[in-house]
Amino acid sequence: MKIVVLITGSLREKSQFAQVVDGALALAEVFPQVIDVRLASTDEKSTILSGTRQWSHRSDFHVICSEPPSIVVKGHRLHQLRQLDSGLEGVEPDTWVLKLRTDKLVLPVDLLKFCVKRVAADEESHVGKFGILEGHLFLPWYINDMAFFAQARALREIIAYDVAADIIAPSLATEQVIWARLLGEDANDFFKSVCCFPQSHQLRPRMQGQGASDLSQAFEPLRNILRRYWQVLHARFFPMTDHRFKNPYRLKVGSVELISDRVFTRYDDWGASFTDPSIFGDLLYQIGLGNRS
After folding, report:
1. Long-range contacts for 44-53 (Cβ within 8 Å, ≥24 apart)?
2. What is the pTM of this model?
3. Alpha-carbon distance 132 to 239, whole Å?
4. How far apart (Å, rounded) are the C-alpha atoms in residues 47 and 11?
5. Residue range 57-87, pLDDT digits in tens
6. Strand arrangement, sheet containing 148-151
7. In DSSP terms, which residues pair with 63 in a beta bridge?
8. Superfamily of domain 1-127, CATH level 4
9. Burial of residue 56 (number of CB atoms within 10 Å: 0-12, 13-18, 19+)
10. 262's torsion region: left (phi>0), alpha (psi -120 to 50) or beta?
């Protein structure tokens, strides 16, 4: 098993960036499987070289000055994909890539260790899958895109920009554009359906242009796209952490009822989030698809 730690983003938050790099290098000292720590950024080359000078003596730390795209799209989507693409250059398809961000999310080294150990213990069962931190149950593809773990071959599936996202659903969030590619031919149907989804916790589900006060009522029109979302999550994602909440969350939306210590919410039921995609086996069973996990 070979692992490349790939850090992407801007160096504007210097203290957070230093913590991320130091954590990645600490991981490399523990696991011989980590063959390289890379930084891919679209910042000015002088800024990148200046900001990484303290690690320039490390033979296992490499800097990639990625050429920025000629246009800026909402959320710097193109910048993010360009950095990921350039950071994977030369990486063998079977190599595992732990993608981290330069700012906003500094993960504890112990969490990274757990994820590596989990996959190393049973690499075959994780092939073609993505390790993630969290995502939403009912807001498709609001999946944390700051950190994830997958083989380079799998990551190549999401390195493309679909202009349909901005044409059909311009308010789509960056992570939705990136991860929706895993829906394959259903991606455009997802883009067309996005107007039915709230764009933030401050909005509420809408159905046929009218507010739906009852979540069960809002759930039904979105059932098909949610089903595909759940199927892909269950089949191709795994948790980066084994964290469980002390008090299980009780959820009932439409025909779905769930009690899980891997579910939480910062808002309400419609904004419920998960930390372990395995729970989708139970959700699919409840709507008549698959076996109870």
Report:
1. 47/11, 48/11, 51/11, 51/14, 51/17, 52/11, 52/21
2. 0.90
3. 5
4. 8
5. 999 999 999 888 887 777 678 888 899 999 9
6. 61-65, 34-41, 3-8, 96-101, 148-151, 130-132, 237-239
7. 39
8. Spore Coat Polysaccharide Biosynthesis Protein SpsA; Chain A (3.90.550.10)
9. exposed
10. alpha
